[in-house]
Design a protein that fits this description.
This protein is α/β, with parallel strands linked by helices. It has helices at residues 18-25, 53-60, 97-107, 127-135, 151-157, 173-184, 196-199, 232-250, 252-260, and strands spanning 34-40, 64-70, 83-84, 94-95, 115-124, 138-143, 160-163, 217-218, 221-222.
Amino acid sequence: MSQPPSKSHGRMSISASAAPRDLMEDATRIKGAWSAKVITLLPEAFPGVLGASLTGKALKDGLWRLETVDLRLFGDGKHRNVDDTPAGGGAGMVLRADVMGKAIRHAHQNPHHPLVYLSPRGKPFDQAMAQRFADEPGLTLISGRFEGLDQRVIDHFGIEEVSLGDFVMTGGEIAAQAVLDATVRLLPGVLGNAESLTDESFSNGLLEHPQFTRPSSWEGREIPSVLMSGNHKEVARWRIEEAERLTQERRPDLWKTHSDK
């Protein structure tokens, strides 16, 4: 098979709508900006929600880059087949090793970028992992489809498997966007107020404390008086106590880890 033309991947493959395409084409290019590549059968699904709000602004401002690599272009034969029946029998189809191998070699050219396959059997994605990805110069994601990916590819390239949770989705595109959203917001300059990163859920191993804003009274419910007192020391104490209470109640696994530390 001949090498796919360069215009068939990257930003040129993002064509879900005019807005995302303009966002990519007009983006400022900052040297050394954090970059993400996504190998997918649905390049039109990107940037999706990543093209909106703070991540979209950061993308347009060149704080990070996003490219898609269309797996179909590396398919075999006239119909560019990317999958085949499972060895040993069984339902469904499996992404072929030779096809994915070509796509990975084409897309993953920086050894310092983690190579990640979105898989329900992977290590659970968490805030610490998002921070680790943000600390690297970029990230290459593989969006799975069908029954999964030939194990030989995972072993050969030393791919890291990552899961959003204990459930199964039709493909990895939504998971890839979730991973990128959680990671990109940690990049310098993406959030307007960097202090918000230190108070949110999981930043210190706890769930975030409850939040309130105006009006002070709504439907007979009042904002806790301590938050209106102006006593910053007491406010900080209340927030810590509430974060601990919620974590104990809702995430005993997190609370145990926090307590052990």
